[in-house]
Design goal:
4 helices, globular, Metal Transport, Frataxin, Chain A, alpha+beta, 7-stranded antiparallel β-sheet
Length: 156
């Protein structure tokens, strides 16, 4: 079999690459951003800059910290600020960690053996869990109450 590159005459169809079957496309066959339009998966399309994220995350976490400190009085929890991450400890030695993740512009909550990732919502002017639509304080209150097994905490 002759493996040398053959040039096709203008207008002639080229043989299909074996990679096309696997989903690989040659550079000139790849769709451009203009071809596909904007989608919800355009992750970096509207990402805020790091300074704006830090300002919003710091304000949200400071407000959450104050609310959690007030909740310490009515619920059996202990709140600590450790290098910008909030740690909520429970009597049974379990712990929640709430921290900003600047590279992806999210606030992450590790609680109940699950990771919750909240994105900034311009509409809500808060960090929101997209799966449920819950805002930061409402989500943290729900998780704490779930851990405690009773409705003791309301975060305002």
């Amino acid at each position: 079999m002759d493996r040398r590159l053959r040039l096709a005459a203008p207008g002639a169809s080229l043989p299909r690459s074996p990679f096309t079957k696997c989903g690989f496309l040659a550079n000139d066959q790849r769709p451009t951003t203009a071809d596909r339009g904007s989608t919800t998966n355009d992750y970096n399309l509207h990402m805020m800059d790091e300074q704006a994220f830090r300002k919003r995350a710091d304000a949200a976490l400071d407000s959450l910290k104050k609310s959690l400190m007030e909740a310490e009085e009515s619920a059996d929890i202990e709140v600590e600020d450790q290098s910008g991450a909030l740690h909520v400890s429970f009597e049974d030695h379990s712990k929640f960690v709430i921290s900003p993740n600047a590279p992806v512009r999210q606030i992450w909550i590790s609680a109940l053996a699950t990771s919750f990732k909240l994105d900034w919502s311009d509409a809500e002017q808060d960090f929101v869990l997209s799966k449920t639509g819950e805002r930061l304080k409402a989500l943290v209150a729900r998780l704490i109450n779930q851990q405690l097994g009773e409705e003791l905490v309301t975060l305002a």
